[in-house]
Every structure is written in C-alpha cells, then in structure tokens.
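Dataset card, provenance and construction

Sequences and ligand SMILES were collected as paired inputs. For each pair, a complete structure of the chain with the small molecule in place was predicted and serialized as structure tokens. The example below shows a pair involving nicotinamide-adenine-dinucleotide. Curators did not alter the output after generation; any descriptive sentences attached to a record were derived from the structure itself.
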Amino acid sequence: MGTGERCVVVSGSWKRREFLKAAALSAAACAPLVVPSSLFGANAPSKRIHVGFIGCGNQSTIDLPAFLGHDDCRVLAVCDVNTASHGYRTADQFLGRKPGRETVNAFYAAKKASGSYKGCDAYNDFRDVLARNDVDAVAVVVPDHWHALMVVAAAKAGKDVYCEKPLSLTIRQGRAMVRAVREHKRILQTGSHYRSSPDNRFGCELVRNGRIGQLQRILTQVAKINAVDPGPGWKPTPMPEGFDYETWLGPAPWAPYHKDRCFYRFRFNLDYSGGQVTNFGAHSNDAAQWAMGSDDSGPIEIEDLGSEWPPKGGLYNTATRTAFRARYANGVELICKTDEPGFGVRFEGSEGWVEYGYQGVKTHPQSLKTSKIGPGEIHLPVSNPRRTTEAGQYHVPDHVRNFLESIRSRQDPVAPVEAGHRSASICHLGNIAMLLKRKLQWDPLKEQFAGDDEANRMLSRPMRPPWKL
Ligand SMILES: NC(=O)c1ccc[n+]([C@@H]2O[C@H](COP(=O)([O-])OP(=O)(O)OC[C@H]3O[C@@H](n4cnc5c(N)ncnc54)[C@H](O)[C@@H]3O)[C@@H](O)[C@H]2O)c1
C-alpha cells in the first residue's frame, strides 16, 4: 500500500469475484481485510472507464490532460493519422500520435512506484480503437469533417463519445449523429465546455429566471481569422514524414497538400470546417441556446448583415467578417458578429442586460452580478458539484468530469448530442445565409428552408468514396 493511501475495511456485501480481483492486486489482502480504497471505489481498476483518444493535435493539449486528471478513467489508446510533426497552431507545438502516446505513458508512469508505464497503444486508424472491446468511450478531437463518421461508427460500436465542438460539418450530419447516439443508447458530451463554466451558467440562469426582464436581443461574438491565407496562386508544399494525408482528407474532396491546409488551420477551409463562425460560434451561440432553453429547437429566420469573404482562389474560403441575424419564434433576435475580444455573449432584456465572455460577467443593474439564484428558481446543471472553488479555468476538466459521471449514470450530460447539433446548426445557418446573401425562412422542426432549393442543398455535402454515413 502506498504511503498516505486511504483504507477501507472490506464488508461482506462485496461480490466475491470483485474481492478476489482486488485481493490479488493487493499485498494487504490478508486478515484483517484492509485494502486501499483505490481498489474498491470508482477508481478501482475494474471500474475505471477506458478511453480511446482520437486526434492528438492542438486541442488534445487541453482535452487529453483533462481526461488523464480523472483517476476513475484510463486512456488505453491514442490515435492520429500524423505520427509526429510541427506545423500546428504555434511554432513550438510538436504533436501527433507518438507525442500523444508519450504524454499518456509519462503521466501514468509518474504515478507508479516503478516510475515506468508503457501501456498506452497508438493507432493510425480510428476503427482499430473502436474494435477494442476494452475501450468504453472515445474522445473525438479531430477536424470537423471527420466528426460525423467517427461519432456514428463509435455509437454503432457501443462506445460513449466526447466529441469536440462544432459537433457537425453540416446540419444533415448533425442530425445523423443525434439519431445514431439515441438509437444505440450512447452518451455524447459535446466539447462546448463553457457549459461547465460557472460564469456562463450564472449568466444563463439570470436570463432563464427573468432577471433582465423579457429577453429581447442576444449579441454573440466570434473571433477574427488568426492565420494568413497563402492566397491565390498558392503551391503545394512538402508533407511531413509519417503523415497519412489521404486519411486526413477522408470524406473531403481530394486536394493537393499544403502546410496551411491541415493542422489547426483546417478551420479556415469550408471543405473541413465552417471558419470562425462555427469555431467560436459553437461556444457563443451555444450559450444563447442554453440561456433560452431552446436546446431542441432553433431560429425561424436568418439573414446576412454584411458579411465579408476572401478573394476566390486562395486556400481559405471562410468568412473574413461574420455578420448575420437570426430570429426566433418568440421574437428574440440573435446577432452574431466578428468582434473583439473574440468570445462573448450579451443578453439584453426589457429590464437590464448580462454579458459574459473572456472578461467574466458584467450586468446592468450591477446588483445582478452578486444576486443569488433562489431555491425555487431555475438552476442549470453543475458539471462538477464536488468542486468547491468557482474558478473558471477548471471548466474543461469539469466538462470531462460531467461526461464520466454521465457514462456511469446513463443520464444525459450538460451538453448532450441534440444541444451540440442545434448550437452548431445556428452557425451553419449563418454561413448559408451569409453565402447566399438573402433572408432565409427556416423550419426548426423539419430542419429545412421554406421554398429555397439552393439553400436546402447546402444542408449536406457529398462524401468522397468509400466514406459514407
Ligand atoms: N473546445 C474548444 O474550445 C476547442 C478548441 C480548439 C479546437 N476544438 C476542436 O477540436 C477539434 C480539433 O481541432 P484542433 O485545433 O485540435 O486541430 P488540429 O489540426 O490541431 O488537430 C487535429 C488532429 O487530428 C488528426 N486527425 C485528422 N484526421 C484524423 C483521422 N481520420 N484519424 C485520426 N486522427 C486524425 C490530425 O492529424 C491532427 O493531429 C476541432 O473540431 C476543433 O473545432 C475545440
């Protein structure tokens, strides 16, 4: 038994098989029956949630430690089509499945008396992770054009899923993900982790409880593009060794390799993502949906408000300036725009306003900021009720905590699949209206535009064979 480890006395209610398994692992399993609590609690090896982590790029530097930090789960495998390279968001990031595996092995090695651990496997093909019977859940932290294929395959394989935001590449793909998750009775947590931020929750609770009066207008922010387009006339560049580019492209149209196409910067090309609209909008518009309680619905009208797009022929073709308006059936209007500092949402009501973003919460009247949500009022779910501090920086680990709790309880997490789909849908609707530059009528129940075939065709994209949903 390690020094300082808490002990429990084994009661007769434990199943013999469980006890024997624990006893075999513990030198302390002799009379009196005292064994480490880690052998019988949720952290017991037999009860741990086994995770396969797919996508070891930029966001894995946040999400992977968030999984590793929870003792009741164990990352058994990582997967990436890139062996290891630079070329990610920042110059110092050296990422891919090899560094991903080393991160996991080093983390668990540090916890062992021997100081050695080599148990994490690394794969190029995500289907090899899904084929493992000992993997309970997967994290999908790959570019958006892969989300639907991986989520649907994972659901069919009986795995629960933590899928990064924006949940989908298209509205039809999002609906297919909802269907698969529900049909196979899986848990899915969308990586819109601001739902686990106490500030965001408080802001949404103020709105839900009518503290700003009748909600009238919501302003949501997205950041500026933070990369330079190689521009018209760009030429292919050499590919990193050990990078399976063909699989990276997967269902997307074939295109020559360029160093600014794939890692991190994929988000500025419509073949793989939706630009900053879907990237940041999946957070800010998600807050709007949560505050309105419209997780299973959406707006009824969308129109462009002067969006700007890059010149044709460049590598990047997503909006350089986002600007659209969405109207809801209850009269609330949502205006989504490129603005500083890049992430934020402001709710305006008949009696005040509340703002939430990188700078924390601001309210009018100011007294709202310190007001308490009473016992008889609407309370939104707290992702990690065991956390005692309200510090905001914990929200990704708490979002993962909420996912793990949901796997055990089989109850929906704080950002379930339908919510992720509907929040991403607002961003996709915005992109479609901004591209077509006309006002569109949307039926959130049927999920189709009224009398606009061109707009309806933009709800889905063909997949490059052999990939199909
Ligand atoms: N929650 C957040 O705040 C947040 C922040 C950043 C990114 N994200 C999301 O995370 C996802 C990944 O973004 P990123 O910035 O990490 O991108 P990235 O390009 O830095 O990393 C993605 C990794 O996935 C790998 N990959 C691509 N296709 C694969 C496949 N078929 N199988 C296995 N691996 C594959 C790539 O090789 C790459 O290493 C995106 O959906 C993005 O929107 C979320």
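Derived descriptions for this record:
Residues 54-59, 79-82, 88, 95-96, 126, 141-144, 146, 164-165, 191, 193, 247-248, 250, 263-264, 266, 279 surround nicotinamide-adenine-dinucleotide (CB under 6 Å).
The radius of gyration is 23 Å.
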